[in-house]
Specification:
Blueprint (H helix, E strand, L loop, with lengths): L3 H30 L4 H4 L4 H21 L6 H29 L1 E7 L2 E6 L5 H5 L15 E5 L6 H9 L11 E3 L4 H7 L3 H7 L4 H9 L9 E8 L2 E8 L5 E5 L7
Parallel strand pairs: 1-3, 2-5
Antiparallel strand pairs: 1-2, 3-4, 5-6, 6-7
Helix pairs in contact: 1-3, 1-4, 3-4
């Protein structure tokens, strides 16, 4: 006779263990690799959520089928070892896929910010980095950099851009973000300029500005942010040039 009470207890334990593993992976992804709002801006976490959902549903459900207190300890250990290995393999696969889509740099280039993901940069470009700080992809969240193309490299940069390898995908042109502060200040536009062009966006900018309690509004300006799904707008502190908020508004209105 099937003892459903025992099986539901096994289901609960299995679900709790799977949930704990998923929570650790989610913390790595959403707090470290995709700090807010990059998970919304560029996406890339959908497969991980699908894998986690399947793990949470199918793994514990298997316990309802395979658990039987009449089995020997050895058989139970073998059953759960196989199930656990399959679940962990699926989780690792999902995490690795997400790792390739994580934002690694936010690069200021000419008149806008570019969100660069891990897959945007080839190993050959990492090897060509002039500054060793940019020869490896960061794992602790996106870093801000400034794109600086020396005069002798401008023709090569143009040809490579036409071929699909743009300047922000080439760490050889990376420099510390603060080196571009003068250009950032020059290119930044007042928030009012976007609101005048697109009045319906005013509530979004107002909400973002309210959260910036320690920054006077006359210090806030905007820069376009290009990512793989289109454009957002960054609110920057013109004193430091650093983005302090991101708003889901395409400043070009496309």
């Amino acid at each position: 006779m099937i003892n459903w009470r025992e099986r539901f207890v096994a289901f609960g334990i299995h679900f709790a263990a799977t949930l704990g593993l998923a929570a650790i992976a989610a913390a790595l992804i959403f707090f470290l690799w995709f700090p807010h709002p990059f998970e919304t801006m560029i996406g890339g976490t959908e497969l991980f959520m699908l894998v986690v959902g399947c793990d949470l549903a199918l793994g514990p459900l298997i316990s309802l089928v395979i658990y039987n207190s009449q089995k020997s300890r050895f058989k139970l250990v073998m059953d759960y070892t196989i199930v656990g290995l399959v679940q962990i393999a699926a989780m690792i696969y999902g995490v690795l896929i997400v790792a390739g889509t994580r934002p690694v740099y936010v690069a200021f280039n000419k008149d806008r910010l570019e969100v660069v993901t891990a897959r945007d940069i080839d190993d050959s470009e990492l090897a060509a980095a002039r500054d060793p700080r940019y020869s490896r992809l960061p794992w602790n969240g996106p870093r801000y950099v400034y794109i600086s193309v020396p005069r002798e490299d401008q023709q090569d940069a143009l040809l490579q851009s036409v071929a699909g390898r743009e300047e922000h995908q080439r760490p050889k042109f990376y420099a510390p973000y603060e080196q571009g502060l003068a250009e950032i200040r020059k290119r930044a536009k007042p928030v009012s300029r976007i609101i005048k062009k697109f009045p319906q966006t005013a509530p979004l900018f107002e909400e973002a500005a309210r959260d910036l309690k320690n920054i006077p509004r006359d210090r806030i300006a905007t820069l376009p942010v290009r990512h793989r799904n289109g454009f957002w707008t960054a609110l920057i502190d013109i004193t430091t040039g650093q983005p302090v908020a991101y708003v889901a508004v395409d400043p070009y209105g496309d």
